[in-house]
Amino acid sequence: MRWENLTDENEHGRAADAALFGADAVTVRTFDTPEFRGITFHEVRARSVLNRVPGASRMPFEWTVNPYRGCSHACVYCFARKTHSYLDLDTGIGFDTQIVVKVNAPEVLRRQLGSRRWQGDHVAMGTNVDCYQRAEGRYRLTPGIISALTDHANPFSILTKGTLILRDLDLLVRASEVTDVGISVSVGFLDTELWRTVEPGTPAPERRLDVVRALGEHGIGCGVLMAPVIPFLSDQPDRLRETVRAVAAAGATSVTPLVLHLRPGAREWFMAWLGRHHPYLVRRYERLYAEGAYAPRWYQRRITRQVHELAQEYGIGPTRAGQARRIRPAGPERAAAGAEPVQLSLM
Ligand code: SF4
């Protein structure tokens, strides 16, 4: 693996400024418990954890923190797969099972937030890989990160598929009392069979909606990033409707659709999966994604319009009575809300 002079990777596949790890900073661990069987953890000590999103980006946030690289949630379509290739790690099964852990992320972040040069900008988490993936249950890095941000009254957002976020509910409530906190949960569809094969390491969609509900009950508004909408598998009108209806029932403050995109690294892995599970769709996908990583704009607009109409029909939005305090979509969700394609990990 290439650890020497390794630079972190941001949401756009470009290297961030600072070298993060020394060559001697890697400790490799495995844990013989059922939830971590087959997973290897590469513990590193980062020099910097605040990653700057390039200025030309369409993202509505400039800074991200990612305590992990690789993700045991193992979503087949995850765009962040490509980032594993920079470590000479495999972008397929290796992305799911070789997890880099920045074990000192909370203390480094606290130091960086305390720097006189830091301007207190919004910090987005979960935009590259999920900070509430399985590893977080063991390493518990995110509470320290939230506490550091809270102590500096620094606004932040989290995008996740992990129900583990509820472990940190008290911390999130405390943070929301001193700064802007945006939480988004990603639920692209409800189909159980599709979930089991395409997002095999994630909590079930219904459990994620329970997170939305629980956050709302504690006064923390939560949006849903309806991502990804998977062409020909979850885009049928009745499926869009059942998802938006469930999102509304969970009390989400907003719903933002994002159509599947297939960048290099994810594309090969996804198309191999498609060939195994839905071979009759391979030719249609080749046509739909013939121009590159994104589905055609007409298709994206159609899905966006349908979901927005359903959201209106089911009354999702910040004006609903009794909903939580924080109603602005979180950073990643605001990004996805734009008409332009965005490069989230489809969390
Ligand atoms: S899409 Fe998100 S949850 Fe899924 S593997 Fe990628 S980072 Fe993890």
Tell me the strand percentage band: 15-25%
Q: Roughly how many Å is the radius of gyration?
A: 19 Å
Count of discrete structural domains: 1
> What is the number of helical segments per DSSP (H or I, 4+ residues)?
13
CATH H-level homologous superfamily name: Aldolase class I
N-C termini distance: 26 Å
Description:
The protein is an alpha/beta fold. The chain has one domain: TIM Barrel. A seven-stranded mixed β-sheet has the order 5-6-9-10-11-12-13, with helices on both faces. Helix 9 links the parallel strand 12 and strand 13. Helix 3 packs parallel to helix 5, helix 5 packs parallel to helix 6 and helix 9 crosses helix 12. The longest helix has 17 residues. The chain is globular and about 50 Å long. The chain starts with 6 loop residues before the first strand and ends in a 10-residue tail after the last helix. The N terminus is likely disordered. The protein binds iron/sulfur cluster (SF4). Iron/sulfur cluster (SF4) binds next to loops.
